[in-house]
Amino acid sequence: MKDSRLFYLNENNKKFAGFNKETSPFIILGIPMDITSSFRPGSRFTPSVIRDTAQYIEFYSVRTGVDMGEIGFNDVGDVILHPSAVEENLSRISSIINYFVENQNIPISIGGEHTITAGVIRGMKREGLCVISFDAHLDLREEYMGYKYDHACVMRRISEYGVKIIEVGTRAVSKEELEYAKYKGIIFFTPQQVKTLGAREVSRKIINSTQECKSLYISIDMDGIDPAYAPGVATPEPEGLDPSTVLDIINLVVDKRVIGFDIVEISPPYDTSGITTVLGAKLIMETAASIYKAKWL
Fold first, then answer.
1. Of 8, 110, 122, 201, which sits with the fewest C-beta atoms within 10 Å of its C-beta?
2. Which domain holds residue 272?
3. Pick from 243, 230, 244: which is nearest to 40 by CA?
4. Residues 100-136 pLDDT 10s
5. Is the pTM of this model over 0.70?
6. CATH assignment of the domain containing 187
7. CA distance 140 to 184
8. Domains: count for the chain
9. Count of Cβ atoms closer than 10 Å to residue 195 Cβ
């Protein structure tokens, strides 16, 4: 009998890069929620578009020496979402994630807006969990325009779960967020700091800051990357990170403790050339390869 936690999971005929390998440790889960976007909506279309795009990139990772064509992915479909009830959707996301985590799978969630990450983290064992987030924004607001479950508040909610947060690529913040980050001891790195220190030194600092963490989760908001490389995002912000630096940091900090990751905030209607979606697919392939190498090689 089907587990009740999967009630809101809908199989999709489209599969990520055509994969449907049930023995893979990596679960692809589409979460097409796009309710609180404050600038450029459209992220609900990303899971479908990125599944198609991923078919046209190579599966062998030169960085890691891992052939993701051999490892594959198990694409389980999309979360069935309510069209307007964010809190209900977070509950659905949490239940589905919880099922796969309990079955020792590594969920790769494709958003959707960044708010989905709160639902994903809620569904995981949070004791000793740390989140490494690549993002232009701190997302630490208490509320945005009177609402607590907004993409601008997602890391605030996750922090309230008792999860430690480290942010990379920060360059668009409010005074309120800076005060909260200081109060909570939330470490963040601006692109200027990353450029000055270099990927290796930033990674060393992240590794030192996560020594007490029992598990790690990586969240990649695509606006953390400069619009020159990722123009099709919901809230673009100049002076961002370059893709190679992001991948260098991920490859250096990933270890056996990583239990999942997500890609969020791509908006295909604004990605007229398709390069943002291609980059998103590449980030999924390379991050999964880094995790596989750390855990099993």
1. 201
2. 4-296
3. 230
4. 999 999 999 999 999 999 999 999 998 999 999 999 9
5. yes
6. 3.40.800.10
7. 11
8. 1
9. 14
